[in-house]
Design brief:
Layout (H helix, E strand, L loop, with lengths): L8 H26 L4 H28 L11 H31 L4 E4 L2 E3 L7 H36 L3 H6 L11
């Protein structure tokens, strides 16, 4: 099967939409631990957004498995190609781990995950202060790793766009290049 030269529309929509959601979540998470007055409102935003990211990660992974991404440039140094593959799979892992660890943490605290009034998720961890503490630390560290990986991802994208100019960035930014009009 031949691999495409660009990401499909679903992949691009999920990529950019989830990028905005993940960045929003990182900032909401920092604000939650910084402001006690805004914390309840931010939690009511953070929890359903985390569940949405988890569900979209499932859709995104299914789309990626069904529609493989375009190949990296043949002249890309091997270490960079390995770093690209590893970092992408780490991003996928974190898109699953962060919401699941957060959900388990809230469950261990004995709090419900309320998506909206009348829609509450079941607990996925027993109520236990020690488990809550462990999961809270894990959630914090995973968030830091995610933030660092996002920064690395953005830096690599800009490197491809501005330095290498090899089409990697454009494959996600715009998808297929426009077909030239040959009737003129």
């Amino acid at each position: 099967m031949s691999r495409p030269a660009h990401f499909n529309a679903t992949a691009r929509l999920l990529h950019w939409g989830m990028a905005a959601m993940v960045l929003g979540m990182l900032f909401v998470g920092v604000a939650m631990v910084s402001s006690m007055t805004l914390r309840p409102m931010l939690l009511s935003l953070h929890r359903p957004l985390g569940v949405a990211i988890l569900l979209l990660a499932v859709v995104r992974l299914a789309n990626r498995l069904r529609h493989p991404p375009p190949p990296l440039p043949a002249d890309l140094p091997r270490i960079q190609a390995i770093a690209a593959h590893v970092s992408h799979w780490l991003l996928y892992a974190l898109l699953f781990a962060m919401p699941l660890v957060g959900w388990a943490m809230v469950s261990a605290a004995g709090n419900p995950v309320v998506l909206w009034p009348g829609a509450t998720l079941p607990a996925i961890a027993p109520q236990d202060p020690a488990i809550y503490s462990l999961l809270r630390g894990a959630h914090t560290w995973l968030a830091r790793v995610l933030f660092a990986l996002v920064l690395l991802h953005v830096a690599a994208a800009l490197f491809h766009a501005w330095v290498r100019r090899d089409g990697v960035f454009e494959a996600m930014a715009r998808g297929a290049p426009p077909v030239p009009d040959r009737t003129r």
